[in-house]
Specification:
The complex is a heterodimer. Chain A is an alpha/beta fold. Chain A has one domain (4-201): Rossmann fold (3-Layer(aba) Sandwich). Helices cover 25% and strands 31% of the residues of chain A. Chain A has an eight-stranded mixed β-sheet. A four-stranded mixed β-sheet of chain A has the order 6-5-7-11, covered by helices on one side. In chain A, strand 12 and strand 13 form a beta hairpin. The mean pLDDT of chain A is 94. Chain B has a single domain (5-266), classed as TIM Barrel. Chain B is 36% helix and 24% strand. Chain B contains eleven helices and twelve strands. In chain B, helix 2 (36-46) runs parallel beside helix 3 and helix 9 crosses helix 11 (257-266). The A-B interface holds A 13, 15-16, 19-20, 23, 48-50, 114-122, 140, 142, 144-146, 161-162, 183, 185-189, 191-192 and B 1-5, 44, 49, 74-76, 78-80, 97-100, 102, 124-128, 188-189, 216-219, 242-243, 272.
Chain lengths: 202, 273
């Protein structure tokens, strides 16, 4: 059995992610123990809430996450967990992220569109990658966020449009550090398939 | 493209034996009908975009039972889940979210203490906090010059008054002003229920739905009065709502969620099918 660790850094509801992974046949551990993280076959960075808080809570394990990412083993950031993978965010005050993938986190501009962007929106899949194996283009997934990731085409696995095109899923150049702005654990069967794909990469 | 959400709502209460049942549901197979988890699974399979459980018992004993229902639902249903009914403490919100819910809706407790919205939004994030506003039309505009006057379907004016305790108590608060304040305090969404329409099957209260949808930057969930798919269509096309909540038309299998979505799609409302 693959050892998947859901990083517990004191923010957000980990139960849904845990249950989603269990549903696709994994038995994840929830942990913040450095040894357990480094020994994992797959690491999940969940997160809801504010970017500044998240980085504060991540500070004690920042070095461990960087070391894990360098190992080449798969890692998936979800929602705010995707945003913290990036270089910086303008949420609150300009704050440095983990910079595992280069790009910025920006607020949706003022327009007639509601912010937060809440609900089911479709993905435009941009690259062949095991995370999206068997996921049809234009599949609907569930989003809830006010800030979005702006990065290069090389770092974008899937895009989504809400007034502007943004990166709904990101990847680093090595292909092992991934993120989804949407919540796979709340996106029905499509989301579960993405979680299953991640487990299979581990 | 962001789709319009269809949200079935389950009013959950305790039966005499202390088990959890869905109010107002009569099925042939009582065992299935009574269990909110079974109903949640069915709605998920039919294509519901989210689920709302409303705890209408809202007692200490009811809360424990509700936690069990949330846990069992979240183990098997992987779409967003909102819990409402009598939530009045940070601790209660924490318990509910830990059990696997994604959002809570606050109503009377927020009217009584608006800072409760800010406090809970600061701790759990705006995306977790839905402010539920129950309102009723008030035709007395003469004595209420400070209220937001809207034009009703027949051209007469009225303002919308916030009511609490499930509609049993009027507050004198203007619903439009309250919604704006709830947004400022950190609500992620507004769940708007018209007490004039609730249970009538006469359609959503469109004037107030439209007003809030246009006034606010956060999404509006329309609720109260759905009797057929056309009502849901009007909630989106005329009321400009972001999401539509309905209970009885789904519980009684008058329409499946899929049928409603197909009806909407034919009329060019974007839905997830």
């Amino acid at each position: 059995m693959k050892r998947i660790v859901i990083l517990d850094y004191g923010l957000g509801n980990l139960r849904s992610v845990q249950k989603g992974l269990e549903y696709v046949g994994s038995s994840p551990a929830i942990s913040r123990d450095p040894e357990e993280i480094l020994a994992a076959d797959g690491l999940i960075l969940p997160g809801v809430g504010a970017f500044v808080d998240a980085m504060k809570h991540l500070a004690p394990v920042k070095g461990i996450i960087e070391e894990y990412a360098r190992s080449g083993k798969p890692m998936l950031g979800i929602c705010l967990g995707q945003q913290v993978l990036m270089t910086s965010s303008e949420e609150g005050k300009l704050t440095d992220g983990l910079d595992l993938i280069s790009g910025r986190v920006l607020r949706f501009p003022k327009s007639e569109l509601k912010v937060p962007h809440i609900g089911w929106n479709n993905l435009s899949i941009k690259q062949d990658h095991p995370l999206f194996e068997g996921i049809p283009d234009n599949s609907f997934v569930y989003f809830v966020h006010s800030y979005y990731v702006d990065t290069t085409a090389e770092n974008t696995l899937a895009a989504c449009n809400y007034g502007l095109d943004f990166s709904a899923s990101v990847v680093n150049s090595k292909g092992n550090v991934m993120g989804t702005q949407f919540h796979p654990e709340k996106s029905g069967t499509i989301g579960l398939k993405i979680l299953k794909n991640f487990v299979e990469m581990c | 493209m962001l789709t319009k959400r269809i949200i079935p709502c389950l009013d959950v209460t305790l039966d005499r034996a202390g088990g959890c049942v869905v109010k107002g549901v009569e099925f042939v197979d009582l065992k299935e009908a009574g269990d909110p988890v079974e109903l949640a699974k069915r709605y998920n399979e039919e294509g519901a975009d989210e689920l709302v459980f409303l705890d209408i018992t809202a007692s200490a004993h009811g809360r424990e039972t509700m936690i069990d229902v949330i846990e069992r639902t979240a183990d098997e249903v992987f779409i967003p889940l909102t819990i409402g009914g009598g939530i009045n403490s940070i601790d209660a919100i924490r318990q509910i979210l830990r059990a696997g819910a994604d959002k809570v809706s606050v109503n009377t407790s927020a009217v009584k203490n608006p800072d409760f919205i800010k406090e809970s939004s600061d701790i759990f994030g705006a995306q977790c906090i839905v402010t539920a506003i129950d309102c009723r039309r008030n035709p007395d505009i003469k004595n209420n010059p400070d209220k937001t006057i809207l034009e009703l379907e027949d051209g007469t004016p009225a303002w919308y008054e916030v009511v609490i305790y499930g509609g049993r108590e009027a507050t004198g608060i203007d619903a439009v002003q309250w919604a704006r304040k709830a947004e400022e305090l950190g609500s992620g969404e507004i769940l708007l229920t018209s007490m004039d329409r609730d249970g009538t099957c006469a359609g959503y209260d469109l004037p107030i739905t439209k007003k809030l949808s246009e006034e606010l930057d956060i999404p509006i969930i329309a609720s109260g009065g759905v009797g057929n798919p056309q009502h849901i269509y009007e909630g989106f096309s005329i009321g400009k709502a972001d999401a539509a909540l309905a209970a009885s038309i789904f519980h009684f299998r008058e329409y499946t969620i899929k049928e409603v979505k197909e009806y909407l799609k034919e009329r060019e409302i974007p839905v997830r099918l």
